[in-house]
Amino acid sequence: MDRPILYDIDVLNEFCINILIKAGFNSRDAEIISDTLLFAEMRNITSHGIVRLPTYVERMEKGLINKNAVMEFTNNQAAAVSLLDADNGMGQIAGYKAMKKAMDIASLYGIGMVAVKNSNHFGVASYYSMMALEKDMIGLVITNSSPAIAPFGTKTPLLGTNPLTIAVPAKDNKPIVLDMSMSTVARGKIRMYALQNKEMPMDWGLDKDGNPTSDPNEALKGSLVPIGGVKGSGLSLIIDLLTGILTDTAMTGEVKTVTDMSGPAKTSHVFVAINIASFIEPNLYKSNVDKVINKIKALPPKGDNEIFMAGEIEHNLMDMRIKEGIPIDIEVVELLNKIADKYEISRL
Prior knowledge:
Blueprint: E1 5-7, H1 9-23, H2 27-42, H3 53-61, E2 72-74, E3 81-85, H4 91-109, E4 111-119, H5 126-129, E5 137-143, E6 164-168, E7 176-180, H6 187-195, E8 205-206, E9 212-213, H7 216-221, E10 223-224, H8 230-242, E11 267-275, H9 282-297, H10 312-324, E12 326-328, H11 330-343
Parallel strand pairs: 3-4
Antiparallel strand pairs: 1-12, 2-3, 4-11, 5-6, 5-11, 6-7, 8-9, 8-10
């Protein structure tokens, strides 16, 4: 297999922005979308990174994403909550606007919650939860997604992987960032294995008959394995009830995958910002988080393993890739260069 090609982050950012502008997005929206894609690459969440760009562009070209969406906040008479109608626009733009709004509300009322309806795939969930860290707030984000997990005891995919992320600030240590889906791995990671024609671990997916498989293509036809069995299945359902059902956007099982070109995705998200200052002096809170982190890291390790907190490995990788560059698989580069040729911009 060919080795990945290493790119400077600024080169990739300029490439993504140019493609998105050529595809019809305004420059500010293009910058936000590109930032989310490169955030994923820097944290090695490649399934949600630059590989998504061709699909986003295709959805826009086919009219499945509204590039001129007019996103409006409604029910603003409710003090601590708001609802954003994304008008079938890009999920990244809706997510950015919604988290900003949640933080503004939290600065006034101690907590802010914004639900989003009529949206699309928004990339890596922790991009938005981590926005709250800049304001000494805790960020919590959930989203529904297309059917991928069979409800426990069945073999028909109906529930989404439905990610959950919570970002908690620390003082001297790196923040704690939990970012998890309700499946053992994200479906995008299985797509990457299929793209690279690689076998995957047997505990990632099930074929259409509910049997474990190492073939990513069979898993994509079947369902993903939920974390913790019935617990992951149950959490996925609850997130669906708090997003698509709460916003009256889509019933369980109706959200379309990002690669399904048959219609709008009908995705929903929820963004919550918690203002730490409404409960405790922020520096005291962050110092106490440091104490918890240091206490955990001082525990005897299992074997020779280094102890990492949630999100710490990704933080370290992010720092390294900013300095050294971002590796992009050759298969992905080829996909991106096809779009570059189409829109007559410089290839990677």
